[in-house]
Specification:
Helix content is 48%, strand content 15%. It has 272 residues and is α/β, with parallel strands linked by helices. It has a four-stranded parallel beta sheet with strand order 2-1-3-4, sandwiched between helices. Strands 6-5-7-8 form a four-stranded parallel beta sheet, sandwiched between helices. β1, α1 and β2 form a beta-alpha-beta unit. It is elongated and about 85 Å long. The chain starts with 5 loop residues before the first strand and ends with a helix.
Amino acid sequence: MSNRERHVFVVSDSTGATAETVVKAALTQFNTTNVYLHRYPDIRTLEDVERVVEEAHKVRGIIAFTLVVPELRKKMLEEGLKKAVPTIDILGPVLSRLQDLLELSPMAVPGLFRHLDEEYYRRIACIDFAVKHDDGRNIKDIKEADIVLVGVSRASKTPISIYLAYRGFKTANVPVIYGMPLPRELDEVDKEKVVGLTVEPYRLKLIRLERAKRLKMPENDPYIDINALMNEVSYALRFFKEKGWHVLDVTSRSIEEAATAVMEIVGAGQRR
């Protein structure tokens, strides 16, 4: 009997990925290559359960399942007993124990973990996009962005971009450099997606002074000269007006407040 083929039916009301991972992890503890996995995802009805149990019965298989709906779990156990098919309830004991400890009832909604998983990977993709499109990099595919931030140096473009990426928006940011034209690629972006960030020059000087100290810049450097900063901010605002972009003053806003305002601005623009 030790050399005969074994069949494990991995059954789930979602993708079956969780159950399959658990079964494969457990199988590594057994020195055998004669175990075959059969994956049955999206089992949602009592008839589906009966069909799977019958298939397992034909090959003397074992069923490992993750079913969050109580009726389906009960049916699986009943059909397994009826057909003499061993069943392993992977989620049931965990859900029951958590229900006791948390004093809450599970929602019994199939696919919730998959949805959370997809959201997680979308956020990671958005953060990756924001990093790759920080400070005007990879400008050629900027049209793929959900939001584009434009502004002078130290106008909080990068931290706001990362915050927006964490919230699920592919965000790019592009610097405005005094006396230099903006990249032509920005003209191809839907203007409702673009937000020009502005900041009061005296506040901007305080922010830049911290960086200037670290870099040991001279006190008369244009980077921190108030007259130069006024020209810089005015230069950026002129661009924003010419392009018809949204404008947001971030002078007295935290990163979270500014990001929330950007989401509201872009969302309102796209709904028009």
